[in-house]
Amino acid sequence: MKHEWRAVTYICDSSDSKELARKRKFDQWFSKYNRVMFAKCDCIAVFGKQQIQNAMIVRTDNRFWDVYLIVYHQLNRVIGKMDDEERAA
Fold first, then answer.
1. Which of 34, 56, 68, 77 is deepest in the core (most CB within 10 A)?
2. Distance between CA atoms of residues 51 and 43, nearest Å
3. Its domain of life (predicted)?
4. Domain limits at 51?
């Protein structure tokens, strides 16, 4: 990422039930190649019985990192609540 204010989110595809293997592989890659320039935050978005592994990567010099983190966690919670509301309807 060339600009310190950018953030990246990614989702581990679960269509073939290999999302945990993808997450482990990405965690290994991140640990190996991160040079303290980036921070990674992991979350799980829950849709009924399905859990979606996802993460956000942000540069450590990003002056908005705390806002990004709050919004990222809120988004993961809201997705689960939306699913709860759909099941209740």
1. 56
2. 10
3. Bacteria
4. 7-88
